[in-house]
Amino acid sequence: MKKQSHADEMKKELDIMMSKINALEVVASDEYQKGVVKVLRALVEGQLHTVNEFEHLKKAIDLLTLQLFEVQNKIKS
């Protein structure tokens, strides 16, 4: 069984949080509550975007590191 990555766990938690925010939106009765829901949604969506971008950066760094090792090996040989 593969261990779930930290990013996957965070995405799952953010998805659960978004579901709870959606439920809050349904029961929101006044403008203040609806405003709070909008702010919470924006924060969670921003965090989810940040996690996704961080994963892309990690992949890019891995590819760059691999390229550096290939260049280093070519220089040595």
Structure description:
The protein is mainly alpha-helical and 77 residues long. The chain has one domain. Helix content is 88%, strand content 0%. It contains 2 helices and no strands. It is elongated. It starts with 5 loop residues before the first helix and ends with a helix. The relative contact order is 0.10. The model has no long low-confidence stretch (mean pLDDT 93).
Brief synopsis:
This protein is mostly helical and 77 residues long. It has two helices and no strands.
Write the SSE topology:
Blueprint: H1 6-27, H2 31-76
Looking at this protein, list some descriptive labels:
0% strand; 88% helix; 2 helices; 77 residues; mainly alpha
Overall mean pLDDT score? 93
Report helical residue fraction: over 70%
SS-derived structural category: mainly alpha
Gyration radius over CA: 20 Å
Total strands: the figure is 0
How much strand? under 5%
Any idea what the shape is?
elongated
Spatial gap, N to C terminus: 40 Å
Q: Describe the biggest sheet?
A: none
Unreliable sequence segments: none
How many helices does DSSP assign? 2
The ordered string of helix (H) and strand (E) elements is: HH
Structurally, the number of domains stands at 1
